[in-house]
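Researcher: Let's do a round of design. I'm pasting the structure tokens now; please hold your answer until I've finished.
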């Protein structure tokens, strides 16, 4: 028997989950997303991705400032949901809300729990150099990503994959796994596995302070930083007084150097290779502050830089 669903989500990551549910036999009776915020250089108020998706599907939409507001809780209860589904909603749900759906709530989380509970699991997995990650469907409890697990799927992380690229893949995997899990819940009880608290790691929110490159780190670490902070806030360094954002890189396999970290080793024919604490890094795409992103070749065509110069 189909389940009546209420969906909680906000950014683009949540869209494949909502879209997959809309293609399923389970009716989405309403959507909850965060209030529209001012974004971009013009600070214009713009709807988030889930608000746009809900509007296109003509679904009832709530954007509460306070999740404990009695009127909001009454509206959710009036939808008579069997199950709540959460995908990157962005706020901890109070117990009064968790108690409304008959079967509680489940969450689409972008990691293989208990690794990387928290706000930025995709970024932190790449920053840490993880080789695998995945999606976990877990039961929502009044604690950060700590509920028992109903389903998991694993995927390899490509060594050159950025956070944006990996998150897009995980979002699609999450939608498929979510529908399968809801189907199983509709058929009866689903086995739930407790998380191993001894294996918990936390994915703290990404901040601008994560951006500066420390060239004394290994080339592998710096490559992970560059792809892990793409598309925001992007890894950064400097050339003289000029700040540079680094969007893409590649590890110079097997290259060793005694040059000081941050020293430019090779310039020319589109190559910009810089010494790291261990090994060297080829910079492929850069963005000088206040300008557009460009290839290393285009950057070198318009910049005076040579071997022996220092970044940092």
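Researcher: That's everything. Go ahead.
Model: Designed sequence:
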């Amino acid at each position: 028997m189909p389940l009546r669903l209420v969906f909680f989500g906000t950014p683009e990551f949540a869209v494949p989950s909502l879209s997959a549910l809309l293609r399923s036999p389970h009716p989405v009776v309403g959507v909850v997303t965060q209030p529209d915020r001012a974004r971009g250089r013009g600070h214009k108020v713009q709807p988030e991705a889930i608000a746009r998706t809900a509007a296109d599907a003509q679904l009832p939409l709530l954007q509460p400032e306070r999740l404990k507001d009695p009127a909001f809780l009454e509206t959710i209860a009036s939808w008579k949901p069997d199950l709540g589904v959460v995908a990157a909603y962005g706020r901890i749900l109070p117990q009064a809300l968790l108690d409304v759906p008959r079967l509680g709530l489940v969450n689409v989380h972008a990691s293989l729990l208990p690794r990387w509970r928290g706000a930025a699991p995709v970024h932190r997995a790449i920053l840490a150099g993880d080789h695998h990650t995945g999606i976990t469907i877990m039961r929502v409890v009044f604690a950060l990503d700590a509920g028992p697990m109903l389903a998991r799927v694993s995927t390899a992380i490509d060594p050159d994959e950025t956070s944006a690229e990996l998150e897009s893949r995980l979002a699609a995997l999450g939608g498929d796994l979510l529908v399968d899990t809801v189907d199983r819940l509709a058929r009866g009880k689903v086995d739930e596995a407790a998380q191993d608290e001894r294996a918990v790691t936390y994915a703290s929110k990404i901040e601008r302070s994560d951006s500066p490159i420390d060239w004394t780190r290994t080339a592998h670490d710096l490559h992970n930083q560059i792809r892990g902070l793409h598309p925001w806030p992007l890894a950064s360094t400097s050339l003289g007084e000029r700040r540079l954002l680094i969007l893409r890189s590649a590890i110079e396999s097997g290259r060793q150097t005694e040059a000081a970290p941050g020293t430019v080793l090779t310039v020319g024919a589109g190559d910009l290779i810089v010494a790291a604490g261990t090994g060297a890094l080829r910079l492929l795409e850069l963005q000088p502050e206040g300008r557009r992103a460009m290839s290393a070749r285009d950057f070198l065509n318009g910049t005076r830089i040579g071997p022996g110069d220092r970044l940092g």
